[in-house]
Amino acid sequence: MAGTNQLATIGNWSIEDIETMKQTLAAGTTDSQFQLFLRTAHASGLNPFLNHIYAIVYQGKMSLQIGIEGIAYLAKQHEGYRGYDAQIVCENDTFKAKKSTVYNEKTGEREDEWIIVDHEIGFPRGKIVGAYAIAYRDGFPPFTVLMDWSEVEHFLNSQIPNQKTMWTKYTADMFKKHVAKRALKGQFGIDISEDDIPGAGSILPESEPQRRDITAEVNAAAQKEEPKHETPADDADELKKCREKMKENFSKLGITTPEGIEEYIANHGKIKGEKPTLAEYKALLKVMDLHIAEKQAADDSLPM
Questions:
Q1: How far is the C-alpha of 70 from the C-alpha of 80, rounded, in Å?
Q2: Which of 19, 101, 165, 196 has most Cβ atoms within 10 angstroms of its Cβ?
Q3: Is the pLDDT of residue 263 over 90?
Q4: What's the total number of domains in the chain?
């Protein structure tokens, strides 16, 4: 690394994309940590803007985390992907599971596997006591993961920024995502150790990425354009435009309730403070644009 101002561009990400990632999705990383984040994402085909992968810095150390969206994306690259089901189990539910021997069509062998026999929901459901996830694949027995609440309860007291907040506020959703990742990894043999990624050379590219002085290029580009944020008034105007664009994008995504908007921002916004910064707004808008494009592509594929 030739100096702290020099970052390497990788893949099809533009200078603006990389600067946005550095300020939001990987805020707090050093240049070397950020390069590892970029290289890991590119080598594994994961898109940070779609919440596939993100960096968490705590006490100067970086941990790369793969979201359920990222694990599901990797699973879909395998033949026979048929989705997954994840559910929480509460104290007033009726729940039964048994260990059975099933036949694996691909290997021709019989294997032990957990099978959900019964899951009936009663209201009020009471406290969460566990969760399970089943990953499906053509030609393979369903891969089931059962997890007791005691195995994840520590996340509510996590010291990692934002983790405690997410687990406290969206407990059921976070638990389902956690167990679903385990099931998908098991069914499709996804060998990606999130907490230990900083040493995982197997998923990094063998060749060095092309290095460019991003800071110099950004400064040069800025000199050719009118300054965009010279005064607080300019920033306020930009923030207003971003908020108006967000309203328009939420409408395109079909998200209209305050609860739905709050959940979307919590899952994809990566907001560090009480109010989003201009950079965080722009990062979220980029994510929304990608989701809108995906939704449009899915709508276009439907029969007329």
A1: 18
A2: 19
A3: no
A4: 2
